[in-house]
Amino acid sequence: xxxxxxxxxxxxxxxxxxxxxxxxxxxxxxxxxxxxxxxxxxxxxxxxxxxxxxxxxxxxxxxxxxxxxxxxxxxxxxxxxxxxxxxxxxxxxxxxxxxxxxxxxxxxxxxxxxxxxxxxxxxxxxxxxxxxxxxxxxxxxxxxxxxxxxxxxxxxxxxxxxxxxxxxxxxxxxxxxxxxxxxxxxxxxxxxxxxxxxxxxxxxxxxxxxxxxxxxxxxxxxxxxxxxxxxxxxxxxxxxxxxxxxxxxxxxxxxxxxxxxxxxxxxxxxxxxxxxxxxxxxxxxxxxxxxxxxxxxxxxxxxxxxxxxxxxxxxxxxxxxxxxxxxxxxxxxxxxxxxxxxxxxxxxxxxxx
Length: 353
Description:
Blueprint: H1 11-22, H2 24-36, H3 39-46, E1 48-49, H4 51-58, H5 62-75, E2 78-81, E3 84-87, H6 89-96, H7 98-111, H8 118-124, H9 148-163, H10 166-173, E4 180-184, H11 190-198, E5 203-208, H12 210-223, E6 229-233, E7 249-253, H13 261-274, E8 280-285, H14 294-311, H15 320-330, E9 332-341, E10 345-352
Helix pairs in contact: 2-5, 4-5, 7-9, 13-15
């Protein structure tokens, strides 16, 4: 693993950052309230305003607006000039940036209460925070049954990052005109339907849990792809169940981060055993060490703790070397590696040795 980070802050900056961590949950709620109550929107539309003006316009108390805006000063969402508040660039991101809002809603609706159980999850090796959402062993079993707001925020988060990759990966995947795909962990069928729309001749089979397969079948029927996309219900962690054979491409997208390294090794072995010599195995994943921007790395490190506390208790957003080692140990060779697909993904093409 390459070196990462340093300890070059002065004491004053280090102390400030420590206080930001200490009060982070409180200040997160302040930022969310400034967004949800329309205060940031009012400043965006009116350029600048006093506390009294904002309170009157939004039918909020002067006290409420005042404490939120003062918190906003330390959050650097707003700044104060001549007794009037103005929106900062960071405030604009909280207000308007789609990625930021999806991340905030995911944090609030899926993770906020659950994170009280992080320490226990680490000690027990189980997603102890999942009980805040429902009574399941893993979140994947209960995805179709998540409470309304949590369900929307979960799928918004999951789809947002994968959707950006589709336009870039399609020409790579279809350059050799594959006739069949095995979409392992196909979830709602979104990728498979993109493939079917991209190539009128390709046929795809989805493997996933019963809940996800039921949703995928409905989506596939609605899109009119029932003749080319099928779905098989499977417990993907049952090593005794082989993957079906005869596919040109086996595909795993934003999937392996849902499993421990030991479980990933088992999945890769079953993929290997199902492939003929000409088949290709593609992995699309976000690796925290291959990110161009610090914001992406930070987000991925935080997302790992969602897996620890909510999803399954044993997976994470991986360092690329973790997965490259499993690929090699399984008997694959890396044939191609495409970095920065979409916003933050890496596409790995594997072949049998």
